[in-house]
Structures are given as structure tokens and as C-alpha cells.
Amino acid sequence: MNIIHSGAKYSAIVGIGENLKKLMQETGEEYLFLNRGVNSVVPIDLTEVVKNIDFNSPAIQVYPPNNGAPNLKEAINEVYFHGKADTSLISVSGGSMSALDQIFTMLDVDRIMLPSFYWGAYANVCKIRGRAFDVYHTLEELEEGMADLKNSAVVICDPNNPVGDKLSDEDVLQVIRTLSEHGVTVIFDSPYRRVFYDDDDEMYIRLMNLKDVLIVESFSKCVGLSGQRVGFVWSNDPDFIQEFNLRILYVHNGVNGFAQQLVYQLLASPEGKKAVKAFKEKTREDIRKNIEYLRGRGFLAEEFYRNSEPKGIFAIANKSYDELMEKKIGSVPLDFFTKDEKEKAKKYARICVSVPHEKLKEYFDRF
Question: Is 203 exposed, middle or buried (0-12, 13-18, 19+ CB in 10 A)?
Fold first, then answer.
């Protein structure tokens, strides 16, 4: 049959994972999967949490409201906005990828501006939707080139995927404020932030009064529920939210009711808060130990963190994909994540540092 090809590619990360599984089957040896983008230090313990969910309730068994379950939106407001947001401006999404897909198709802009090292899905969604994209290299470059950003949308991911560098909040906020004042739309997509920050974090509150700012959030990273595919989008533009909700209705017919009620319990119930706290504390502890170990052994590619802090679930190793594979460590070549810095990136690899510390140390001690 005749079809329209998008030109997008399947995730290289998936392909690398499949190859690692094949090698394990063929050799009978274990490989360390640092190519994946999920928190793998510990799973979140849902044993006590699910006891609070009534699986026979309409919230589970009937079509969910297309803009999100009211109790979940109230919980999101309390946890992320300290109760100061208008819940009608919060829309529950099917994870951040589908949210970004809708956002990229909705925005009436000429191009999407991505960080020079970017999550591959950004570029592939742009290709599928026929949206032009370009890259920026620093926040300073955005400020200096403000005139060239007219009718563009800028994606800010902090801590960044794939680099895992955390910039100063004040620097990030200042640039977003300047972009907002110049009428440039900002998509603040930082799903790794809340792994490292707790409910007293004020970043989203400080973004609330800025125009043309979209917040995209996912519960995949901060509570370890990538399998549930649920997140949220906030905008202070009612027209945007109305159109976003309309698209959720006709594309997804709402977001999985069970996933919404599970996340609600994690955000609002004593059992859920306890489970999230334990998950985040252990995850952060081992990520910190892993980064300290990599830095101490000289495995961390320091040039990527000269003006930032390595504080994410990813880091850049100054070993190539092939060098890591020799020690049975899975990774992703860094040149997969860039449009214009491929030569520089070829000697590096992105690794996920959200794995048990002793396991990471065991494999890197082979060098």
C-alpha cells in the first residue's frame, strides 16, 4: 500500500539493548545495561500503596476525564505548585513523549530549538510531524541571539539528557524570563529534576507567572513508573490547554485510569509518600556514589561539566561505546545525541548512572 514515510528511526537505545540481550544468550555472560534511561537502583515498592486502590471504582473501570482525574490534578497542584496553580491549567498526559508530540504539532512556530546534545526522541518527533528543528549550545547563546529566535520554541532540559549536567537554577530562570519577555515560547521539559528535588522545590512556582512557558513533567523518572506512561502539562494559557485537552480526547480518549490513580496515591497518601521517599533516597545515594566513583577514577568526561554539575541519571564517560563493550558494559555512543557535534562526540558514550553502586563499580574496576 502507499504510505507516507516519516524518515524517523527506531530508538538506537532499543537496538543496543536487544543486541546486549542477544550477546548474553550467546555467551552466557552478564552485561551491565547502562544504555537504558530508567532508574534501576531499586524499584519503587508499591506493596502497601496498591491496597488503597479500589479496582472496582469508576475511576478505574470507566473512561477517564480527558484532561485528567480531578484528584490527581489536585495532588499535582499541591506537590508541584504548592497549591498555587489553577488546576484547570493542568492537563494529565500519557507520559512526556506523547505530550511533546502534541505540543510540537500545536505550536505555530517556524522551528523547535533543541540543546546541542538532545534526547533523540525530540528530533524524531520533529521528523514525524514535519517540524523544522535547530540546536543551541549554551544559555548565553540563546540570550545573545534573541533576535534570531523570533517565532521559535526553545526546549530546555535540565538536568540534561544525555549529558546529565545541571545548570544553576538562577541562570536557567533568567534565560527563560528573557525569552518570555521577547515572546519566545519555552518548553521546560525536565523529567529528571524531581529525582533530586523534593516537594519544597519552587522551580515550577517561579515559572508560573511567565507567559509562553510550558511545563512538561513525567512520573517515569521521579517515582520510577515508566511503565505506566503518565505525566502532566501546565500552561497559563487557557487556549493552549483547551486545544491540548481536545487532542488528548481524540488521540488517546483519556489517559489510563489505573495509572492516574496509582500516581495519585503516591503523591497524596501516607503509604505513597513513604514509598516515594524511600525510592528517591536510595536512588540518589547510589547515583551520587557512582558519579563520585567515575570522577575519582577519571572516567567522567569533565569537559561537559565545566560550568555545571553532574547531577542526573546520565553521565558522559570518556570511553567509547566499543571500549565499554570490551568490559561488557552497555552504553550509547554520544554522537547519537547530536546534530552538529558528531566528530567531537564519537570518543564518548552516554551511560545511565542510576544503577546499584556496587554493580557499576564491579564492571568499571575491570579497566
Answer: middle
